[in-house]
Amino acid sequence: EDGHDVVLGSVPPFDTPRVRAGFLAEQVDALLENSGAEKVNMVCFSMGGIDCRYLVSPDGLDYGDKIASVTTISSPHRGTYVADVAVGFLPDEDDAEAIDAIATLYGATFSEVADDSHIVAALSSMSERGMAEFNATISDHPSVMYQSWAGVSSVAGIPNPRRNAETDACTDEDGNVLLMRHEGTVDRMDALLVGAAGFVAHGTQLRPNDGVSTVESAKWGRFRGCYPGDHLDAAG
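Above: the chain sequence. Below: its structure as tokens.
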């Protein structure tokens, strides 16, 4: 409606950022060739934000000359602890053929690029440990603008018992509280996310989160603020 040309990218649902970014690279190349544009803006949700960072980084696929900006929405830039927990219960990547086969079958029900899924590798890459290693090696591109949004939601609609926890989390580096909701209201988290939310919040630490990513983990580049919504709300 604003006059922008919008193209939906498609990546394997269960794989590492390195693999997924390769699919994005092909689509960016095709988009630039077909449109005649010099650069594109990437709007990247959840793990997609990590894919986009790998795509752009000089230490990744080095697409900084083709990308004007990377906007991430609820992306776990510092990992999500629920992935660490899940990896602890799953087989090692080398012994994950059976579960990867199941992920491939499931992924094929909604994706055309899920032919060779690697769900254990994907979860490992999204763990807090995995993202610490990623951030230590994958740098931002100096000519690309990075900005981020974070979702914040509450289990059963109960406000966070830690006083000021959400306003503190949703404060930018200049000290501005960017919590975009009416005072006294909270978002009620979808029941499908409640089980994971306790791990994401690090238990009694009660870190504000959207059921998959904490607010602090979702911050990257210029922080634009928290919106009232869980991880599923962000996807519509």
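Residues 17-35 form the longest helix (19 residues).
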